[in-house]
């Protein structure tokens, strides 16, 4: 390897920097097709309801990348790795992050997504864009496909589940733990995508570590595309649980790692209101954000991948 630092491309979905940027963001998600006035108002109102015109969501990713940089410095020595951001639907885009690496003289890099579980439709798409740009820029790039069972990740989630259950008087005896993740089009099952099973593996590991016997998995935040998405949706699951007599639920979004729209609106506002209307008390675990254990899981995965840079580039 060269004497230059190893670049680390930290990728995530992205979020607009302000309410004024929502339309451009939504248009990018829709592959260049502007949203209708109704669609734009719906998304803008969701952001407005959780942030009140102030945008802390972007800062979450900035803090995660800064914390990861500190963790890599501690584990590998300052100057060994240099982190760059690459967002799927907002600036700096994935290609921007790789171009910045090249401008800084980076020749070897590792790409990782702030999503523990792999799917060809999500993480796979990020990696494809990153590797294509890396090839253009003459950068050898290794990838971290998933880290959904890393011991530090499971431990961090386990602690959050235990703390969450402590909010209920009866703890686990009172509350059911409801693991959730972002839904994807149902065709991922037909192509043998590992996403659903990796989410279940994470959920099982966390439940076992926390000593939880009563738990279920559900999907959330499905897109409105006219095609079937993985289900049942969290609202459907909550309705079923209410009919079965469940009165307390701890939502544990194992497919998400930070406070953003799918957590702060879809769970905290929409799902909570839906649950309360059916006599269910709904609480949520604290998100990982820049938790040191989560940072350690990311850093370990990056260090492991970095060892394969030469062989992966040759094999790829």
From TrEMBL:
Subcellular location: Cytoplasm
InterPro entries: Ferrochelatase, Ferrochelatase_AS, Ferrochelatase_C, Ferrochelatase_N
Pfam families: Ferrochelatase
Gene3D superfamilies: 3.40.50.1400
Catalysed reactions listed for this entry: Fe-coproporphyrin III + 2 H(+) = coproporphyrin III + Fe(2+)
Any single biological process term in GO: heme biosynthetic process
Binding site for Fe-coproporphyrin III: 13, 30, 46-47, 126
A GO molecular-function annotation: metal ion binding
UniProt EC number: 4.99.1.9
PROSITE patterns: FERROCHELATASE
Pathway: Porphyrin-containing compound metabolism; protoheme biosynthesis
Lineage top rank: taxon: Bacteria
Residues annotated for Fe(2+) binding in this entry: 182, 262
CC per GO annotation: cytoplasm
Top EC group: lyase
Keywords for this protein: Cytoplasm, Heme biosynthesis, Iron, Lyase, Metal-binding, Porphyrin biosynthesis
Coiled-coil region: none
Keyword set includes Cell division: no
Job description of the protein: Involved in coproporphyrin-dependent heme b biosynthesis. Catalyzes the insertion of ferrous iron into coproporphyrin III to form Fe-coproporphyrin III.
Protein family membership: Belongs to the ferrochelatase family.
UniProt-recorded name of the protein: Coproporphyrin III ferrochelatase
Species, as recorded: Cohnella zeiphila
